[in-house]
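On clarity, I found the account of how folds are encoded harder to follow than it need be. What matters is that the chain and its backbone geometry are given together, residue for residue. For the editor and my fellow referees, an illustration may be useful. For illustration, here is how one protein appears when written out as sequence plus structure tokens:

___
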Amino acid sequence: MASARAARGGRGARRDEPLRLATAAEMRALDGLTIERYGTPGHVLMERAGRGATAVLLQCFPRLRRKGRRAVIVAGKGNNGGDGFVIARLLRRRGVRAEVVLLGRAAELRGDAARMLNAYTRGRGPVREITDAAGLGALQSTVASADLVVDAIFGTGLDKPVRGLHADAIELINAAGVPVFAVDIPSGLNADTGVPMGTAVQAEATATFGFAKLGQALYPGVRHCGQLAVVDIGLAPQAVAEHAPRAALLGEADAARLVPTRPADAHKGDCGHVLVIAGSFGKTGAAQLAARAAARVGAGLVTVVAPASLYAVYAAGVLEAMTEALPDDDGRIRFDATRLQQMLEGKTAVVIGPGVGTHEGAARTVQWLLAHTALPIVVDADAITVLSRDLSTLRTAAGRALLTPHPGEMSRLLGCDTAAVQSDRAGTARRFAAEHGCVLVLKGARSVIADGSGSLWVNPTGNPGMASGGMGDVLSGILGGLLAQGMRTADAACLGVYLHGAVADRVATDGEVGLVASDLLPGLRPGLQALRTALDV
């Protein structure tokens, strides 16, 4: 998704404010309060929406201003269609040859949508009604000869799969080869999940109203929206204060404000000490990547825990880290509560899981740590798999757990398939974090971060080159290093995930294919510095 922006003439968000993301339910509440309690008529909001969308449309498609250009507004019978009628009327005033194709009968319209259609037809704007499949041929020829199609079929209130005439119309629009501008949201796209509800319009640009929608910040919704602009329609400030959206798209300024600073007289003991329990025979690299990442983001001290038989490998692998050993179980750690208790002394954060294995020793170690340490703890990879066998410890964890599952690991935690996780990434993360009182990072394209209070953040950084082994180990180390410095768990998650992707984006400027996890390590320190300076720009 191109970074969302406020439309010209709208108040919008300041550059240094996070871009808030609303669910469909939140938008219904905000619209309802603005209209019913705070006295702004619905038709006034619709007029503002249409005017703002028209301004965005002409900015995105300036060629439409040329003489003789033609726009076809394909409208439904609801309020989204009403917004489209406003756009059609305003385009005609600007000399554009605009016409409306209504999927339904004009006589069936009610309320504000009917009012706006009447305003459009009073100016002699043409309307073509299509009520059945027989009319699709006319729609096809009308759309094919247009310079732009305006999609005003369905808005954010769509709550069931698109079928029949509407599905056929959407597929026809997508196949026409004509640029498409979507009103509020591409028709057929779920506003909360970003997943098409059967089928969805593919737009080059979208003007959305009030707030960006959560599904517009998630894949595949990102692709369906194209360039996204947020139009200020004048929602009542009191309504926004009462029902402010609880999700946000992370931006550079949001991450920059979280970067830790050090006093001039700081020493290593002030900067935290991470205990990294990771790796096993054949997976020693996981421990080394995590330890190096923790140090690169500013942890004053790092201690890596090795199975005894691999101690020499660990000790030679990370020069700056200290090493400790646990009893050995064929190249894997064996559970030892006494040794673990000793190792926790003086530490300020724990990372467990990368490459550690899923055997009994690892499982008992994970469960013991969650039950017995009040330190913030990053639970990743194999530790998530063993935790999924018994979540009761997580519910009563003594410390502040930060889980970092990929979709497959998330499906194991929930006992469902991966497709179910991917069909509602934000909702899945929110529900799990709330139920278990943890912070959760659901990794993937547009990783989502949820805390136990219901707040959620979507991360826009990262690229396909990160689909390679060890990337998650680096992220675990980053998160552990930030937590060790005293950051709040949710703040560490937001900064760590944003930084991880942003550094990968910088490294990938010379190519994504072949990007490996260790490529990110040298970029973490300058990546933090770039964020520090971003607020001064």
Remarks:
- The CA atoms of residues 4 and 235 lie 18 Å apart.
- The longest helix spans residues 42-60.
- The two ends are 23 Å apart (CA to CA).
